[in-house]
Model the fold of this input.
Amino acid sequence: MNKESIYILEDRGIIYINGNDTFDYLQNIISNDLNKVTDNQSCFSYLLTPQGKYLFEFIVVKHKGGFFLDCPKYQIESLYKQLSLYKLRSKVEITNLSNEFVVAALSKDKFSEFEKNNNKIGMTIKFREDPVILDPRCVDLGARIVINLEKLYLSAKKLNLKISDVNEYYQLSHSLGIPNSDTKNFQNRIFGLETNSEELNAIDFKKGCYVGQENTARMKLKEKISKKVYPVEIIEGNIDLDEIIKINDNEVGKIINNSKFAFGLFKFKDPNFKIEEILITNRAKIKIKKPFWI
Done:
């Protein structure tokens, strides 16, 4: 990411939750500990199925008397409905603000100009009253600002930033092994722990109950996870969704995202699996981009 650039993430949406019961309501359903979220700190979290499978993901940001949920825009409507189901009699208001707020990304070097002595993941500051968050998944992914659309261009000008090609941001995210918006094929199909939720700081194993907590904790304790999502690079050919991935005729995974920034679900404990090997599908040769946590 260029220090002089800002990247508008048009595929992100914003839900705002506030009301007297907001803290307890969210704390009881999300996978991370809401006690971590303050005016100076944000977190990454999941909303899982009761079985511990991936359902929704979002960055939780303190805002006034409530919380922003910065999430993939394609999830907004279904996330809103799911949050409403858990609302029951809780005194909370859930509002879709995706038409009013936009999310934009900037480099960690630019963020360091705001906060020179603290590069802690999730570090949150204010620029002209708008939250700027050092990405709580990985500091190398830079920072993001949640801002009213009408203010974005003025703030970019004041920060001496130019609007740049968003593919630069997604290329970096992919190289770090962090899926951003195209996770449709994850939903209700693979466990949260298989999507590297622990490595990306989405789960707190010390907090109390939340949706999917029992099975997630059991899988962690008994080391039941045998598959992981890794970014893949296409060397030649084309890949299809759910296509089998092999090494020397041995099945070691499948394609779980066949977009420009593709991902595979790999049996990382399989004795045939080697992360440095050239892998094959029906019509392609691929290799794994080694994520930063390996």
Q: What stands out?
A: The two ends are 22 Å apart (CA to CA). The chain has six helices and 17 strands.
